[in-house]
């Protein structure tokens, strides 16, 4: 279609329309994680308010720390009056798994950084890639026609961040009204991750990466214990996948990266 | 150190260290193009990571005493089955979560 005279007419209008379309697409794909975010956000703010920290501190930490499990650990550190060095080391350990997430989006996010006006979007996207946001982006195998892939990714990350801050603020405002009746809703995070695993399994050319993940998770559940399993499991999976890289076709050919 | 300054510092340090873990891959490959093995890893690792995250979410399940994680197993199977069948993520998550919340209140109360 190169040289099509229509193209010249449609180009100037494209941005606004596509922007809206991408936003709607982003909002749709992130719906399944809404429950997980709202629940964990409320749980965090209930802990904070019970420990005597008000709305200001709740919002401050959800905007800047923006890591569910770490924020909950942070409440414990705050109330214990832990030294800052302990806070630093604990955060590194609790969040070290994020090191692995960035590897899947190096090219995508960097391309955003090269777009006009995208210089701040690149670091923003890199620094807001939480567990849930990462799995939403991985579930985003293809974007609907007419949507810009990078725009959808940015909108997903921004919406996730806003939803997280709103959930934390709502929890602090509503206080204990919601407490007690919601036991079990945290399972929605597990359910979402399971659904993503099923998608990846059906779409992948090789099941080896998923099986490597499963074996190392089970192994380190027993070797390192429930709380210590995640880092060794991720590291061993990474090394295994590197060692056998020439024998494994890319798990998701069109997806999270080329 | 007074309370306000201490609280602000704890939040600041936690934020900074979180950014380090999230930003490091980009800093490492800021100037040069990532080597081929990094791109390969970026393509194969997500499948392993997601399985490990599911396992990690289930880490505190009581496997060695009744009901032997039955609520978790049944609910995960419900999600996987729904997802394989209908391929509607929202529906699968809803059904799985409702299934879990009902099971822990009725069939397998703690």
List the helices and strands and how they pair.
The complex is a heterodimer of chains A (about 260) and B (about 110).
Chain A: H1 5-30, H2 34-50, H3 55-64, H4 68-80, H5 84-95, H6 98-102, H7 106-114, H8 121-127, H9 131-139, H10 149-174, H11 187-203, H12 208-223, H13 230-243
Helix pairs in contact in A: 1-10, 2-3, 2-4, 2-10, 3-10, 4-5, 7-8, 9-10, 9-11, 12-13
Chain B: H1 3-28, H2 36-57, H3 70-86, H4 89-105
Helix pairs in contact in B: 3-4
Helix content of chain A: over 70%
Q: Determine the number of helices of chain A (DSSP H or I, runs of at least 4 residues).
A: 13
**Beta fraction of chain A:** under 5%
Most extensive interface between two protein chains, with residue counts: A-B, 101 and 65 residues
Class inferred from helices and paired strands of chain B: mainly alpha
Q: Which sheet architecture does the biggest sheet of chain A show?
A: none
The gyration radius over C-alpha positions of chain B equals 21 Å
Low-confidence stretches of chain B: none
Structural class determined from secondary elements of chain A:
mainly alpha
- How would you sum up the global shape of chain B? flat
Mean pLDDT of chain B: 90
* SSE topology string of chain B: HHHH
Query: How many strand segments of chain A?
Result: 0
What is the first-to-last residue Cα distance of chain A?
25 Å
Uncertain segments of chain A of ≥5 residues (pLDDT<50)?
1-14, 251-258
If you average the pLDDT of chain A, what whole number results? 84
Biggest sheet details of chain B: none
Helix content of chain B: over 70%
């Amino acid at each position: 279609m190169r040289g099509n005279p229509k193209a010249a007419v449609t180009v100037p209008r494209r941005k606004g329309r596509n922007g809206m379309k991408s936003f709607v697409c982003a909002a749709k794909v992130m719906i399944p994680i809404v429950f997980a975010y709202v629940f964990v956000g409320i749980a965090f703010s209930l802990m904070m308010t019970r420990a005597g920290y008000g709305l200001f501190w709740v919002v401050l930490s959800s905007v800047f720390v923006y890591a569910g499990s770490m924020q909950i650990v942070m409440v414990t550190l705050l109330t214990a009056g832990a030294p800052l060095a302990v806070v630093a080391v604990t955060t590194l350990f609790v969040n070290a798994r994020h090191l692995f997430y960035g590897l899947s989006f190096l090219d995508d996010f960097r391309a955003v950084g090269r777009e006009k006006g995208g210089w701040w979007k690149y670091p923003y996207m890199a620094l807001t890639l939480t567990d849930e946001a990462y799995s939403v982006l991985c579930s985003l195998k293809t974007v609907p026609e007419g949507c810009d892939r990078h725009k959808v990714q940015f909108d997903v990350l921004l919406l996730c961040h806003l939803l997280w801050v709103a959930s934390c603020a709502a929890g602090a405002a509503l206080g204990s009204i919601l407490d007690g009746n919601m036991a079990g809703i945290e399972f929605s995070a597990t359910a979402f991750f399971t659904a993503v695993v099923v998608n990846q399994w059906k779409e992948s050319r090789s099941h080896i990466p998923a099986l490597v993940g499963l074996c190392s998770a089970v192994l380190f559940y027993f070797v390192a214990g429930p709380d210590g399993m995640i880092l060794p499991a991720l590291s061993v999976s990474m090394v295994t996948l590197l060692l056998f890289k020439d024998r494994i076709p890319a798990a998701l050919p069109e997806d999270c990266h080329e | 150190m007074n309370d306000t300054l201490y609280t602000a510092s704890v939040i600041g340090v936690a934020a900074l260290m979180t950014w380090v873990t999230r930003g490091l891959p980009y800093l490492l490959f800021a100037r040069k193009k990532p080597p081929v093995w990094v791109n390969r890893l970026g393509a194969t690792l997500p499948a392993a990571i997601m399985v490990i995250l599911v396992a990690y979410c289930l880490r505190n399940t009581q496997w060695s005493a009744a009901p032997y994680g039955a609520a978790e197993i049944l609910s995960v199977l419900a999600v996987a089955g729904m997802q394989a069948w209908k391929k509607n993520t929202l529906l699968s998550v809803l059904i799985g979560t409702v299934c879990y919340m009902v099971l822990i209140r009725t069939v397998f109360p703690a």
